[in-house]
Design a protein that fits this description.
The structure holds two protein chains of two kinds. Chain A is of the alpha/beta class. Helices cover 39% and strands 18% of the residues of chain A. Chain A contains eight helices and eleven strands. In chain A, the strands form three sheets. In chain A, strands 1, 2, 3, 4, 5, 9 and 10 form a seven-stranded parallel β-sheet that branches. Chain A has a two-stranded antiparallel sheet with strand order 6-7. Chain A has a two-stranded antiparallel sheet with strand order 8-11. In chain A, strand 2, helix 2 and strand 3 form a beta-alpha-beta unit. By secondary structure, chain B is of the alpha+beta class. Chain B has two helices and two strands; from the N terminus they run E-H-E-H. The chains are: A alpha/beta, B alpha+beta. Chains A and B meet through strand 1, helix 1, strand 2 and helix 7 of A and helix 1, strand 2 and helix 2 of B. Strand 1 of chain A pairs parallel with strand 2 of chain B, so a sheet runs across the interface.
Chain lengths: 241, 50
């Protein structure tokens, strides 16, 4: 069993979070450190402070040396997938290949209402999410990407420089919907993250996931999702500190 | 899987929850630190998880 820490960037300060992550870097038991991707606090006064996820990750990548870093999880509704792919590639480079790319479909109605961000009905939201993940993988792995989805369209698109981790940083998909979310995990993710009400519920969902992964054939991360061995991306030649 | 650390409870409680998920097959347990926690929480947490 591996352990990680997560710091909620709400009602706190940058200095506080930075100091926790720097300290965690020295505890080998903590494999990774995570924040979240929201703009309003999820608890207490919504007018309180909440630091932005990817700005923090870039700075925390520089402040740490060992610990893997990531966001649980980045809402696909908040950024165009091409923007997110470019951010992720840069943070992977800044961190010398320690990024875990956490993504989810998004859900926060309050933030979307306040900022005028479209939060589509669930089916469309997951359709958009599926296209977004495919677009991100294309941009992170291919010299040029052309993708003609219903919602995401890329035309001979570049995303340079490429991330350190190859074929791309591990993709962590968050959520516990047995249909759309676990289907997406089985197709594209190297790690699944869910918050369940009990170990029994987690085990039931894992069984659904394993069945889907087995049906899906070989791809990076498959063995890890099946619990057979850890996923270890390759690193680009000459990369790293 | 995320395990939230309740600052009103001893750390051992969160470690027990983590162990229960580990026994169910979870391979990565993310310990959600208490709100505005400082670095001093890490050493005792590492000890109860080890």
């Amino acid at each position: 069993m591996r352990f990680a820490i997560k710091t909620r960037p709400e009602h706190t300060t940058w200095e506080r979070i930075r100091d926790v992550w720097i300290a965690a870097d020295d505890f080998e038991i903590f494999e990774s450190a995570w924040n979240w991707d929201h703009f309003y606090p999820l608890s207490g006064d919504p007018a309180g402070s909440n630091l932005e996820a990817w700005s923090m990750l870039a700075a925390l990548a520089q402040a740490t040396r060992r610990i893997r870093i990531g966001c649980q999880v980045s809402g696909m509704i908040y950024r165009h997938p091409a923007l997110l792919a470019n951010i992720a590639a840069s943070v992977d480079i800044i961190s010398a290949g320690r990024l875990e790319l956490g993504v989810g479909a998004g859900w926060n109605q309050q933030e979307c209402d306040a900022y005028g961000i479209e939060l589509p009905p669930l089916k469309e939201r997951f359709d958009r999410f599926d296209e977004g993940v495919q677009a991100i993988i294309g941009l992170l792995t291919q010299e040029q990407t052309t993708f003609q989805g219903q919602y995401v369209k890329l035309t001979e698109a570049f995303c340079e420089p490429k991330p350190v981790q190859r074929p791309h940083p591990p993709i962590v998909i968050g959520g516990k919907g047995p249909n759309r979310t676990l289907r997406a995990v089985a197709k594209w993710a190297q790690q699944w993250n869910a918050i369940t009400e009990s170990p029994e519920q987690w085990r039931e969902l894992k069984e659904v996931l394993v069945t889907r992964v087995r049906r899906g054939g070989s791809r990076p991360g498959r063995d890890h999702l099946l619990g057979e061995r850890p996923h270890r991306p390759r690193r680009a030649a000459g990369a790293g500190r | 899987m995320n395990v939230r650390i309740d600052p009103a409870e001893p750390l051992e409680r969160a470690a027990e929850t983590a162990a229960a998920y580990g026994n169910a097959g979870v391979d990565l347990i993310v310990m959600n630190l208490p709100l505005d926690a400082g670095p001093e929480v890490l050493e005792p947490l590492a000890k109860v998880l080890a």
